[in-house]
Amino acid sequence: MTPARVTCYHYHPTFDHQTLGIDFPALAPSALFKSVLPSANNVDGTVRDLLAARDVVLSPSEIQRIHGFNCIGIAEKIPDLSLTSSSQVHVWHITDDLYPVTPSEVERWMVDAPPGKHWILSEREFDSSLIEQSNSLEVVVWGPERMASWIGESVLSGELGTFLQTEEEIESPVINIENASSENQTVRTLRPLVELNNWLEQRGWDGARTSPVLLSARLWDITGTLTGPDDQPESGNWQIIEDPWASTYQIHEAEQVLGKSPALRIMKPSSGWMAERDSLPSEMLKLADQRRQGEPETNDDEVSSIMLEWWRLDQSSVQAEFSQLTIPGWIIYLEGNESKLLHGRNGRLYEFD
Question: Which domain of life is it from (predicted)?
Answer without folding.
Answer: Archaea
